[in-house]
Amino acid sequence: MAKIIVLGTGLIGSAMAVDLASNHEVTALDLNTELFDRLEKKGVKTKQVDLSKSGEIAGQVSGYDLVIGALPGHMGFRCLEDVISAGKHIVDISFMPEDYLSLDDLAKKKSVTAVVDCGVAPGMGNMILGYHDRQMEVDDFCCYVGGLPKKREWPYEYKAVFSPIDVIEEYTRPARYVENRRVIIREALSDLELLDFQMVGKLEAWNSDGLRSLITTMDIPNMIEKTLRYPGTTEYIKVLRETGFFSYDEVSISGKKIRPIDLTAKLLFPKWKLQEGESDMTVMKIIISGKEEGIAVQYKYDLYDEYDPETEVHSMARTTGYTCTAVADLILAGKFNRQGVCPPEFVGQEPGSFEYVRDYLAARKVQYKMERKET
Question: How far apart are CA 91 and CA 353, in angstroms?
Fold first, then answer.
């Protein structure tokens, strides 16, 4: 039984803590104690700590075998750096804007395994690509993914199960994709297309910056990731963005300076909050094309997952969190010990690791359906 510390007890962090507590000794830290009672009933120890304080994280992780990072993106890089500096292995899901690969030398120096971006996408999508890149010549990789409330409610038809500020980041951060081995940069929400999904119906897909590490770690001619939302979402988000509601630049109102993003967050986040028992779903489609043993092939992976009323765990927490806990289990079992900062595609490239994660998820009813055809 290993000692694990979970940094952050939001909906995803809490789900990971409970999942790991079935086989390990788990302690969860956060400044917000809202979910502590539920965690303690599931056998998780809790501790109220302000992890934003300088030096706090390094002191807290001492004495643990593995760290799970589940903090908002703006705290992610410093958390990762502090944990690595402390010589602790970490699996992290924060959507940090910084280049986490810049910490690779430090992680190797400290003999640390740090798996980052280890959620659903980025995360499981990277592992699937890494797995296939090891056994075939991949020419094209396309990933469509989105987390949505099952019930469409006006005006936003959207709810956030991870940090809402990271959701806004998806709407503003320039999107990068690879075309004919060239990195193309477009604004987020661009190149809108409508797609049909069997369990959901029509969804709209747009460019987002989800390729992340794949741009530098994988030599594949064409790669793109698009975010899925209910039709009509893109238009009103563009209106908010172009009007300046997502800006961090201060404006003066009646002699007081405020950042528009702070006002937007104050107004939007309560409306985006997923209520207890409210059902959500995760939809993902991955298409990988190339040559396998000289034969042109195409692999399709489809994921449709819903809120689990039995465990009361939301779908995005299941699909993101259990991918992270699967890799944590993989490391603790000594089955993945590559040192350095490791994006999930490195896990997929390691023989047996993708299958381990896939089966771990399947045991928790997160099912990826795969179809192969020769083209």
Answer: 15
